[in-house]
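=== Structure Prediction Worksheet ===
Name of assembly: unnamed complex
Input type: mixed (protein and possibly other molecules)
Chain count: four
Listed entries:
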Amino acid sequence: MSEADFLAGYDPAAFPRPALAVDLVLLGLRDGRPAVLLLERSQHPHAGRWALPGGFVGLDETLDKAAERVLREKAGIALAHLEQLYTFGALDRDPRMRIVSVAYLALLPERSFAEALDGEAPLAAAILDVPWAGETGGPVAALSRRGEPLALAFDHADILALAVLRLRGKLDYSDVAFALLPEQFTLRQLQDVHEAILGTPLNKPAFRRRMLDRGWLKPTGTREAGTSFRPAELYRLARPR
Amino acid sequence: MSEADFLAGYDPAAFPRPALAVDLVLLGLRDGRPAVLLLERSQHPHAGRWALPGGFVGLDETLDKAAERVLREKAGIALAHLEQLYTFGALDRDPRMRIVSVAYLALLPERSFAEALDGEAPLAAAILDVPWAGETGGPVAALSRRGEPLALAFDHADILALAVLRLRGKLDYSDVAFALLPEQFTLRQLQDVHEAILGTPLNKPAFRRRMLDRGWLKPTGTREAGTSFRPAELYRLARPR
DNA sequence: CGAATAGTGTCTCTCAGACATTATTGG
DNA sequence: CCAATAATGTCTGAGAGACACTATTCG
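=== Predicted Assembly ===
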């Protein structure tokens, strides 16, 4: 940062600044399909449209802390995998004033996702339509329970699309998939998560080999219960996330 | 964004905000080794340390435009591959006040890199020491011309390390490598770029096959000049970047 | 035993690494 | 011809897809 910046920036009120916010893409699985938690806007602007939960960044709070606070206050969720996604800074993304928003991706296991829906926050779940459309990914649509596309507020459709892309990209080289699963899970559940996010079926033996050869999984020795067929072995992550 | 946010946020002066800046990691190649352009700080704080060029984001300018402006004003570079890297928001990253910074990665062909060094801006080049250390990447050190590690200002060492990681990660599935090359280049030059960024040698036949099979390269029909041995075919990118 | 799903064995195809070989330039 | 590097051919081993087969549970 140069001399001029130093002088210009030293007085906090020297010139007007963009407001800074965080927006959260709360992704989880709903009946085996990828879904996102949204808030219906009742006020202008974009009243009646659906928005990602968000909030302004306090002067005394880091970006990560602001995201955690929004997760807690707006979604009633205590803990989730949170990672910074991208920062959106178009001039007209909010008609009220200039707001730059740091988007975060939050991954919820199916259970947390359902609990957030049942909690006090007026959240709704939108199923995501994620057609395969090659690696680069096509459009991502958020659907109502009746399968109709929802109108999203602001630039939140862009944020959502980027979230799905990021998740897809990290799926096979990172451990993000496990953030969408309970602590113990079967290989079939793990494959279902991958298939739901990718929007394409995968080869079973190859998938199992790849996952087991990676060495991240540890068999628990117990098996799933309540099936009317051969129960599958339960695994957990060998190394802590 | 909720009702409360709406009311709290509507008055632009309602509560203090973090300042918002962009910082640029200007990466290029110097004698075949990865290098970064830095400014030596003359003023407090961190006087004498080396910093990434940066500047505040104006109210009427997008993040990308702010990055382009810094590229132009602070580095004298008209055009470069620019992509957003990550947003840094630690509370104490700048001792003067709370500044949140959106870091950008700028990739320069060897020629632009040299021109920026010779230009009016008081930039210096630091060679990067990028040991292989596996995919996750070890520490990245910026070295002076005498090979001594440079002390970086603020959290700029973190930003630099992340820039190298991102570049490595995108090397083989994106076309970023071509942003470091002139418009026409040989396959050997392309391989040199990959090896410099990855910090590890690559297998020649396999590398050639992979690059040619990808279909991105178009032979120009001309060959490099000035060699005392068999000159290599010159290629260019088939599809526009 | 039948239904349903878990889990495995095996063949093939693709692709990367390794190494050797041929091709082409200047001197 | 020699030196130096470009460019290619070929063998091998790792890993994914496809498909069939065996295993285990409930009823």
